[in-house]
């Protein structure tokens, strides 16, 4: 867990100041050594010209302000318009990506078939071709992803869930990841393994949105730099991802809401709908333009009869199917986690796999493709069909067998794969379900970009078809008693099963909508809804969703949900979980103290209190603000200023004329109050700015290091650090979030998840007494929710219970409140150290 | 607006204490007068026996505690199960209500037809029958509603929106309202006026949920008394309402989310889905059992061809249809509001209508039914069809006319209504659209329970049909160029138009899903989505939604949305809008001060500060808590205690023996600390308890009034009021919501709407400086959002702008912060009184 704590804080901590001084020191020594070797002057000149050039580049950063404000006004006026344009662009790009990828995947699969078909003279060669092809593709995918961006591995939905929660996982939204994900996914899906593209598509769409934002920001400036807006756009992007993957705009929006959000702002609704619709539209239009289809229709169009889709008396069968799918979904999630945990726990396997990262995917692929080899075992489980072909066959509206005897069904070209001369269709279906079940669970643990939705959907469809065919045999003329005969439609069961199983695995209800959009028919709405709800009820009571399971496996910094009703049970308060050792700065802090605080703390912002005695919270300051204050104080401008004055005082005009003019020019260029001003106006573009300025400072300091004795600089630095901080022009948030000690865990959780907070200060009558961050909250909650089905009671709560009765803790003891405020606070019952340890233990065990 | 402020606070303000003393005084005088007339003793005895009986009834209120805690545990364990049962019951009841109501409506309409048909010999009689029938029904509906519960008038969605926002509108969820709404709605719809049932059904379902909660609470005790839970249930109920009205579970859930929520908790999702599905299922199953249908299918099943639902080149037509519907929707909302406002402004009309409330609905009905009289003007606008029949005809998949010549279409029995021998189908359609448009806008302003969704849906379908028929004439063989001929399906246009117009009026996207579920076909998904999104884009930029419009007309206490992008524009801070004159109590307050504060304030809770000097906020106390403290201090127990001691001190044992034992027995029965204890443990059941105790106290005080001189009591009361309040055992919320003065309006708005707050305290370094309630926030926001299309700038913001520049206000001036804290606060720029007036004016004008 510690790794994530540092990841959250890693950017600010080792970003600017720390690295700056360290590098400076190293470089200074190197340069001094080189200087002693001679040839310094020429070098200085070249350094000067480059630094001057760089300074030219960022001359007068305040000039931006005017641009900013006028732009801001334009921004406000045109914001809605910009949104539309952005969403259209996003939809367009994603539709193109989706379409091209589909084409590439189809091509890959065709190539395999062609190879396999061409070699039908020799079984061994055929087997080698059948097996080698996916192994090569998967290995390439795994290797490529590993080298370019390991963040592209897996589904991406857990990560998006975490990012939308407000936690910054920067590496997950880079161009490298985009390339790795798209190419890796194409290869992985092209291999024909039981992998899906829905989850990765959510990630790809988010990547697209993030990159598009960046691109447009570079093109049009500040318009695309609002962080709140980016979150809104990311959440729209998730909808686009699902939408253009299945050409299911409504289902896409709903699925992305269910999967990624805890609280959903209804005003963002239209964004998702608009982008997903546009994207799905373009995606399908491309197919029409390419002459693949005559017009825009559903991806897996079904042709069930409309007038009598199902009998009322079939509903119990649908309900049983739903419940069975619920158990199946829970089993899938459990199996998937079990495999990952087994691999991790077996130390020898783990070590081996860590060294040879490509062995695992290659081995898994080898086993799976061997088992599906059509002339071998594959003939009993329709091994030669791709996912798409299998699904089309499973959703067919005609019955495969009747009266126990397999019918001849050759109307669809690839339906014969299901019919084996010696073996019943039922055996084929059961084998297909069982084999695909574990294969999918194993395949999704491979380190390639892949999702589990589509394989699960397929298994569900097969299971539904199995139930449907059974029903068709049991009631050959349909159930309906009076009058006309309506035979049972096994395809309808397949639709219901697909929705129910995928709903159970992902804990969503919107899979129902996705199947309607996917099949283009809504006639089975009631059976689908009933099955999906029952499947969800069963699965949710047994296991977390697949995505939550992955979040726990990957230990992503996501705030878990409070269990139903649990929050009333445990009366944990903020004072039990808060960190009492808060990093703060006071109004009279010196720069040295600021430096120390910056070195040690991890949170994005720091508390500003009145004084160490009063501890009254005045506000919070962003880390970057303090860093810029510090670098301003120790920065090259003031440093040069000091040096020049020092030189003038000593009357030593011994430097070369060139160096002197250089100093003067630098001085006039870089006017003192500019850096914080830049920070005020364009604080989202910090990174690029600071890196440029960093370069300048670096070069300038090289120049001065060469010209001056090192000791003098060090002395000056020490002196500067002892000065009190000047907080003028520093952006202070005067209203950081505050809780009081007795705020309940439940309330804290609600506030954190509703407002997407990272941390909140705990105050007691205005005095800062602690801080609670996501990490503490997560710890406290994870003690109280089910981890693997076993409920763990948070030790702190039980401790609390033994001390107080429930009724007493409800009534606030005023005298305590009073005494605490008066400073005569009662000796707080100290939490025994073993209790604290236990909490950590519970957390680590997981 | 003031009326709502007082309504919010009305319950606590005039509830317990005020009335108690007043009644006591009056009764005491009467009793004293009667005593003087003689016959006192017998009366006293009877009083004693009744009071003893009542005391017996609530003897040992703390005994409940054990029950409570054991129940609570059960509650936690079984909560989820209870939810399921509750939702099933709700779904069942609503399905039955919906089905019975549909039957009754169909019967009413059939009766009218039969009457009308039976009198075809005499035109005048026929006309009278045609007109009288709806006039009587509507007048009855209006009168019945008016007498039983005026809250049942109208749609109910605006009220539900307000209630789900957290504002208590108690009268809207009573049994009376339920009866009034159900019967009123049945009559209103049975009359055949262009009215809908969707909105009222949302209200009816919520009423059902509230009553069911109450009923189950009475049956099983505390399990159903959680307020948070009730809100969750209400939001599920809204989904049920829509779901069982249209048999559209998914669309129902989404529509109710879009219409009623600002932020939606995804964990409540399943509740809505489950209840709506169950309810829709039962609703449709009832139809099957009743032999109306063979199996469960869609309500308005369409039979469009599946293989080629529409041509890609038809999409521009669909888009134009969507945009036109957007304008139409905005016009409808505008027209509806215009009618209401006209009626209000015309003082003479207004006065007349207020006196004769039934004249307006009767007149409107008369006009509308006259115009639709089939042998009269109605023949040109299919006047004889009910809404249901019209919609079935409009959604038909065959073309009505081809090549400009009206075809013979007699395949559906009521399609001939559209075909007039002399008049083109187009003329009929246009007349239908235009007439129904204003008729619906007028009819929905009648004071009967009615919605506007269905009429708008119908108009949209007619408009779509018009466009579709036009397209069919323009492209008689379809647009598709190569190969097979696919004629245009005008029914598809009708579906698209219906979804787009109803989407535009309600500002929702989920009408798309509703039409899919209503027609049972999803093949037109892309055209529908495109049209709905375009219609929404147009309508949202022109007018508020119909429900928001009604909220403004009715001046319901709803927090409006911040306009898009507006929030960045106006830098209003909490300090600009907060109320500085906060009602608070201090730790050293006397009971008299508490009494005064209770008399004057309006908010549900009161701030507790350390002292008037320091003003440090310690917490907040609920009004009811203070009231119980006060009544405990002045209550009968202490009063009797005092009297007895007083009597003993004076050594006057002159009372009758009976009265003395009476006092003793009372004393032993009612042990001192019990009343606050009751409050602590069962504070949700306050009202019933207090009323019972109120009775007891009342009787007891009668007894003491009779036995003692009045002046002595008054003196004692004064003395008691001067004592400092004892806050022990008083429930204090130690963490009320706090903002600081510089919290922006945007942040405040977000927090209020996310957390459903009623008010928040404003503190400055722990000191209470003000309070912001919903009312202030609403005022501030309404200054900045469009009211009737004209943007009104909030005067405070403009004032602010002139003083500061934007950049300055971004950077917090630390010295101000510092000075303010130090108590040397800068003289705050006083808001000129005319500015304040202006704000009020803006608010009142609306």
UniProtKB/TrEMBL annotation, chains A, B:
Pfam families for this protein: Voltage_CLC
Membrane-traversing stretches: 84-106, 127-149, 169-189, 201-221, 233-257, 269-289, 315-337, 358-377, 423-444, 456-475
Composition skew (Low complexity), residue ranges: 677-690
Annotated catalysed reactions: thiocyanate(in) = thiocyanate(out)
Keywords, sorted A to Z: CBS domain, Cell projection, Chloride, Chloride channel, Ion channel, Ion transport, Membrane, Phosphoprotein, Postsynaptic cell membrane, Repeat, Synapse, Transmembrane, Transmembrane helix, Transport
Superkingdom, natural source: Eukaryota
CDD domains: ClC_1_like
InterPro entries, per database record: CBS_dom_sf (IPR046342), Cl-channel-2 (IPR002244), Cl-channel_core (IPR014743), Cl_channel_volt-gated (IPR050970), ClC (IPR001807)
Compartments, as annotated in UniProt: Basolateral cell membrane; Cell projection, Axon; Cell projection, Dendritic spine membrane
Topology class, membrane: Multi-pass membrane protein
Span list, region Disordered: 664-690
Gene Ontology cellular component list: axon; basolateral plasma membrane; chloride channel complex; dendritic spine membrane
GO molecular function, a single term: voltage-gated chloride channel activity
SUPFAM superfamilies the UniProt entry points to: CBS-domain pair, Clc chloride channel
Family of this protein: Belongs to the chloride channel (TC 2.A.49) family. ClC-2/CLCN2 subfamily.
Subunit structure: Homodimer. Interacts with auxiliary subunit HEPACAM.
Protein name, entry field: Chloride channel protein 2
